[in-house]
Amino acid sequence: MSNLLEISDLVLHQLWPNPTDETPVSLQEILSTARLEYAYQFLLLYWKEKREEGSFNMPAELSTEVELDVVNNEIDISDLDIMSRLPDSIWLQNIGGLTCECNYVKSNINQSQLLCEDDSLPETWRPYLIVGKKIKFPKGTHSNKLSIIVANSGKEIDENIEVDDAVGAIVRNRLMEIYGKVGMEDKTNNTQGQT
Fold this sequence. Notes:
It is a single chain. This protein folds into 2 domains: 2-55 and 162-179, no CATH class; 60-151, no CATH class. The chain is built from 4 helices and 9 strands, in the order βααββββαββββα. The chain has helices at residues 4-15, 27-53, 109-115, 165-179; strands spanning 2-3, 63-69, 74-76, 92-95, 103-106, 125-131, 134-136, 145-151, 162-163. The strands form 3 sheets. The protein has a 4-stranded mixed β-sheet, with no helix packed on it. The longest helix is centred in the N-terminal third of the chain and has 27 residues, at 27-53. The radius of gyration is 23 Å and the shape is elongated. The termini are far apart.
């Protein structure tokens, strides 16, 4: 298995065999693109798996756990780098940690309005709704700080993370497509005297 740094370095040296500080694209730029492309390609692979196998599990390397303050029964998530385009808000994988102290169940605006206070949930179960850049808790929370696990957009992926060879090959090919179109410098200097 290779990692994103090795894949990025390979692409850099394939496109510019002797890179210098004059090379139009740096290794860091390619690596940044590789992280995002890896997250996207992994997501496509998992969507395919869900379609074919019937289940979907978020890859661990795309999961981030953070602890956030609850203010007025809301958590502000505007500063999180999340993969928000996932269907049914599955980017939000867990609220409250992996213990059974209190279970948080996803609701939506229509369900909340239909059920009002009669949701028949046990006391240790509390509903939440995602509204824009906030997670709202109509029945409050068990703590003023909650741990949440989200799917990140891939920007925080470590450059040394080992990647599946099949996904790594796709990332490499995509990087070649993206950076192979970068214009090369004209070193002939034959534009003098032209009007």
